[in-house]
Amino acid sequence: MRDIKLLECTLRDGTYVIDFMIDPDTVYAFASDLLHVGFEDVEVGHGLGLGAHRSYSAGFTDRELYERLAPLAESNRLYSFFIPYVGNLDDIKMARQNGLYGLRIGMEPAYLKEYMPIVEEAKKLGYFVALNIMKSYTVTPTGFGELAEMVKDVADVLYLVDSAGHILPGEAQNYIKAVHDKVGMIPLGYHGHNNLGLAVASALEVIDEGVEYVDTTLTGIGRSGGNVPTETMIAVLARKFGVTHYSDEFLLRTLKLARSFRDYILAKGKVLDIRSEDILFGYAGFHSSFEGLVRDFADRKGLDFHKVILDVSRKERVFLSKEILDSMIDDLEK
What we know:
48% of the residues lie in helices and 13% in strands. By secondary structure, it is α/β, with parallel strands linked by helices.
């Protein structure tokens, strides 16, 4: 079978639902369990990446976390996320000094050229660098191919990122085809959100087009509509390619760990069911990070929040602010 690498992201993307409040000892315990089950690539850290603890407290610092994880990082492939306008170069250096193997740099298409020096610096530090083009749906497949041309000789893998769970499976396939048309076969990954329930189907489509890396989380836990469920993806790949790697035992051990993590989340009083709003966000291509901003705006103006989501998303999907929303008020009121 093809070598499909599942990058297990529960201990990063999954922390959104508990307000990032997962202590270093618990991260260490679950990371150890994931590695023991057989996952070779595991992402850890604050949901918003390195440096985010300074603005979005997680109850601990990055240094405390990565020093705790250093014994695991010595002999395993641990990754962290980094957004250039959240963290800084010192954060990147600190994590590398504690043995972190991979850095997944996330940015919107509009910022790629501006922050390419960060990608280059991460490579100089010895990181395996994955470049995650957040909100990939804000460019066309052709535009995505042009972005691939910019980074093909720098990043180790380029990720198609469906941040709102908006891209349909056939559309995801078109993005990958566009990369191949522009630069040929390069290492590619897929990070999908499951707002419309299509993340696994999209993963299968892009795998058929040559994608090697798929991000997953236990039970699909993650921001907004969640992510590609790890255990589901294992079962689907075993059905598709046979059980030479994704064995029955591997699936059963993953299911047991997924139940354990789910119990941990529920014990914190959190709800894991998808909300109707998350489906709307997927339909509209609306990033959930703007939810509070738009709710406050709709309340102030006496507008229907759900209708505002649709109208705003047809005008702007990359960046929103109070000023941008206020500038749209005439059209929104109509």
